[in-house]
Design brief:
The protein is an alpha+beta fold and 190 residues long. The chain contains 6 helices and 4 strands; from the N terminus they run αααββααβαβ.
């Protein structure tokens, strides 16, 4: 009985991974070749999309990273975030501006940069989460800000801003537009 339960758990995880991969493949193909065209979605695409939008599956894939995809293989640059911090003293004088907290080891830096993938959910229209998920994302920003303010003993407040890079498209790049823009996604004062 225990082995059957373990095998069924493994089977469920593999089924979720396969379904996410199938949906990602369809998204990539139809998003690239049919970007501005109307098309009828195949049944496999519709089924995989419906399964991945189920709340338990959606939460599981967000927390495990199964839904991140492989954007680095795409012809356009994947999304990237920047979080900036402005530390002020009690008189409002700017003490320091930085984009990264201090980290003691490399693993912390990796974890910090991977947390940004979750913030895509704040700007996406495809996935609609409940209020608690958005509150969870706000808590993450607050915790990062609380950590940053402890790094400078003279700081009385910190303003944290989350930006999304807006890279030029391939068509814009061919026209000579190479500047990146930053789009403000969220701002928090601590």
């Amino acid at each position: 009985m225990k082995k059957k339960l373990q095998l069924s758990g493994i089977f469920m995880i593999l089924l979720v991974v396969f379904t996410i991969g199938l949906k990602g493949t369809f998204d990539g193909y139809y998003g690239f070749y049919y970007e501005n065209k109307d098309y009828k979605k195949p049944l496999a695409y519709t089924v995989s999309e419906n399964i991945t939008q189920l709340k338990p599956i959606n939460i599981f894939t967000s927390y495990t990273g199964f839904d991140t995809g492989y954007g680095f293989y795409a012809p356009n640059v994947a999304s990237d975030f920047v979080m900036s911090f402005e530390l002020k003293d009690k008189n409002g004088k700017v003490l320091e501006q930085k984009t990264l907290p201090y980290f003691k080891n490399k693993e912390s830096r990796v974890r910090y940069t991977t947390v940004f993938n979750m913030f895509l959910d704040k700007i996406s229209n495809k996935n609609i989460y409940d209020k608690k998920y958005y509150q969870y994302l706000d808590i993450i920003i607050r915790q990062i800000a609380a950590h940053v303010i402890t790094e400078n003993p003279n700081a009385a407040s910190v303003t944290t801003k989350l930006y999304l890079y807006d890279y030029p498209t391939i068509a814009d790049f061919k026209k000579g537009k190479t500047n990146e823009n930053l789009i403000l996604i969220d701002e928090f004062k601590y």
